[in-house]
Amino acid sequence: MTANPTAFTDAEATNESSRSSFIYRDLNLNFSKHPITGKISTLSDVEAVKRSIRNLINLNTYDKPFHPEISGRVRELLFENVTPIVADILESQISSVIGQYEPRAELISVNVIDNSDRNEYIVKIQFYVVNAPGNIEELTTSLERLR
């Protein structure tokens, strides 16, 4: 009986990153093809964590099957008047959902700035990726109601 040939190549493989033995990978939800392999491309490390945080913020109650508790609860606040009080509530909601459901990110700060002229909130999130604690990453996104 011969050994599985892929077991040897898996054991000899090296990591792409020099900082950790573990790389975070997620599917690219744009479902774009990898130019060489033709498979769905993936996001690695920091980009994967940023995409996950953005998805958690935009996730509404009952959007995730069998897990209605996973929600940023942002949509219900976007239909309120744009005020600093709602911005503070958004900060606490976003901090809570990232702290509970994104173990790959160590949250530093969440700042929500209300822009009443455009009826939107600008969200700036600073965090560390757990396997790279020396680099502070920043994610900036805007929240506005669509209907």
Summarize the topology.
Layout: H1 5-12, E1 25-27, E2 42-44, H2 45-58, H3 75-78, H4 84-101, E3 105-115, E4 120-129, E5 132-144
Antiparallel strand pairs: 1-2, 3-4, 4-5
Give structural notes:
- With 147 residues, the protein is an alpha+beta fold.
- It has a domain at 45-144: Nuclear Transport Factor 2, Chain: A (Roll), CATH 3.10.450.40.
- It is built from four helices and five strands.
- Residues 1-15 have low confidence and may be disordered.
TL;DR?
The protein is an alpha+beta fold and 147 residues long. It has helices at residues 5-12, 45-58, 75-78, 84-101, and strands at residues 25-27, 42-44, 105-115, 120-129, 132-144.
Low-confidence stretches: 1-15
Structural class: alpha+beta
Total count of strands: 5
Rough shape?
globular
Spatial separation of the terminal alpha carbons: 64 Å
- Give the class-level CATH name of the domain at 45-144: Alpha Beta
Number of helices: 4
Strand content: 25-35%
Helix content: 25-40%
